User: Which sequence fits this backbone?
């Protein structure tokens, strides 16, 4: 697939800078040429007893630290004082130092993407909780005309079931749903299953290869417990459907089915996946995909195009844009079903 195939135009004012509850929902089925708008309540009612809704329980890390106007995203601790980071390092020479909050000094020791820096003392999660911000997508910062988060982002940008810390972006399809919604579904006999995928560096880096086959996906950590996988297999064996809440959940399930993770059905699965899903891929697990509207020229849009088809996805996006659906991380929801 060519990167240019994933391009589309949209008005900047449709970039959502805060959540809207309840969100609008675009429903797309394989049988109908045109999508339709349904309410979130109608969507919940579409999930029948016996089906399974799979969600991602990752928790977003506060790792965006400022040194004056310079923004540093702390990715991974390499050793005691050394960290992999992302920051605009072009104008800095090796050995250059920046002052961070609470008197911590950071020295650039290796350039590249990511960079390696060394701090003058060790820091832990307590430090980041004190001084760091959530890593909101740059397009939200731009649309707000504000570099820093607002207090409400602390709750807006975490799911109601965020549990396992490790992600650099929220599984945003889940932001549309509350814990009460899950209770309603459970009471009706819908199975709720959790997996974990920690969204990684690839979220922040643009795709540069024109041919997606040449794109090097950054690995992401995935966990699928034995109980979760066995329940999914049981539901499928009974002829019921797997509803995947988000592209992160979808990558978790498909990585497991493809044997890309360590482990087995008795002990559970874990490991790192670099799975890139694009048109031509045959889905092994997911029957219904619930996901946000994604940016042009993104691997996430490629995944949706694989689940449906590229021309239909682009037509549905234009349909939604014409009706002023809100876009991207804080935007509205789209649901792609192979059948009603």
Assistant:
């Amino acid at each position: 697939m060519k990167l240019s195939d994933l391009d589309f135009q949209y008005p900047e004012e449709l970039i959502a800078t805060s959540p809207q509850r309840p969100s609008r929902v675009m429903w797309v089925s394989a049988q109908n040429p045109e999508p339709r708008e349904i309410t979130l309540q109608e969507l919940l009612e579409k999930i029948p007893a016996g089906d399974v809704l799979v969600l991602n329980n990752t928790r977003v890390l506060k790792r965006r630290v400022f040194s004056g106007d310079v923004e540093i995203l702390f990715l991974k601790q390499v050793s005691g004082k050394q960290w992999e980071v992302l920051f605009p390092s072009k104008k800095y020479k090796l050995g250059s130092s920046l002052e961070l909050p609470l008197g911590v000094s950071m020295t650039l020791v290796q350039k590249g993407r990511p960079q390696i820096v060394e701090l003058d003392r060790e820091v832990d999660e307590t430090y980041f909780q004190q001084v760091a911000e959530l890593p909101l997508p740059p397009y939200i910062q731009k649309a707000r005309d504000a570099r820093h988060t607002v207090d409400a982002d602390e709750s807006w940008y975490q799911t109601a079931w965020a549990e396992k810390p490790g992600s650099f972006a929220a599984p945003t399809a889940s932001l549309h749903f509350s814990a009460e919604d899950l209770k309603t579904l459970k009471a009706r006999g819908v199975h709720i299953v959790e997996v974990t995928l920690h969204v990684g560096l690839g979220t922040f880096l643009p795709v540069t290869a024109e041919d997606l086959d040449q794109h090097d996906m950054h690995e992401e950590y995935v966990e699928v417990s034995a109980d979760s996988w066995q329940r999914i297999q049981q539901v499928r064996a009974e002829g019921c459907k797997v509803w995947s809440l988000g592209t992160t959940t979808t990558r978790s399930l498909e990585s497991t089915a493809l044997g890309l993770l360590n482990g087995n059905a008795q002990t559970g699965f874990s490991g790192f996946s670099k799975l890139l899903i694009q048109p031509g891929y045959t889905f092994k697990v997911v029957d219904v995909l619930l996901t946000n509207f994604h940016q042009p020229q993104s691997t996430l849009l490629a995944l949706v195009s694989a689940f449906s088809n590229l021309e239909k996805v682009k037509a549905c996006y234009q349909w939604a844009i014409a009706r002023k659906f809100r876009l991207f991380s804080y935007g509205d929801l789209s649901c792609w079903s192979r059948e009603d």
